[in-house]
Design brief:
Layout (H helix, E strand, L loop, with lengths): L1 H19 L7 H21 L4 H23 L6 H35 L3 H25 L2
């Protein structure tokens, strides 16, 4: 799980850097629905069952690239350059990685306990479908409501 989170962070670090440096620009009207769609995709994959670790790593990296383009909007207004920009990018990326690691550490005991339940798979599936529903709503909001 931590490897998947790291693949995501590495990928979003790449596109975040490219976006902040002005080398890649994707309008929010495109990237925000794409982020929402990626959440739906991963949630449905989770609900339908386990995939190989290599598949999970590839999907996390691919969607990390998409999410990094969205994160670019967070740092761009600061108009940083040089070492200040480098420190901001490093701090942001380390913060995301540490936040993901902390969430995994906090949630792992609960996830392991649920996994031991007779209906643990059903709990995972229902939670995944709930996340997919929220992602789908976010997608509809971004596409239809602006």
């Amino acid at each position: 799980m931590l490897g998947v989170a790291t693949a995501f962070t590495l990928a979003h670090s790449i596109t975040l850097s490219l976006a902040v440096l002005g080398l890649v620009r994707v309008p929010a009207a495109i990237i925000e629905p794409a982020i929402a769609a990626s959440i739906v995709w991963v949630a449905i994959e989770n609900a339908l069952g386990q995939r190989r670790v290599s598949h999970r790593l590839a999907i996390a990296f691919l969607f990390g690239l998409v999410h990094g383009l969205g994160f670019g909007d967070a740092l761009e207004p600061m108009a940083l350059s040089g070492w200040r920009l480098a420190r901001a990018l490093l701090g942001f990326n380390l913060g995301v990685e540490l936040g993901q690691a902390a969430a995994i550490i906090v949630m792992m005991p609960l996830l392991l306990r649920i996994g031991r339940l007779e209906r643990g798979i059903l709990v995972y599936q229902l939670a995944s479908f709930a996340v997919a529903a929220v992602g789908a709503w976010w997608f509809v909001q971004r596409v239809c409501l602006g």
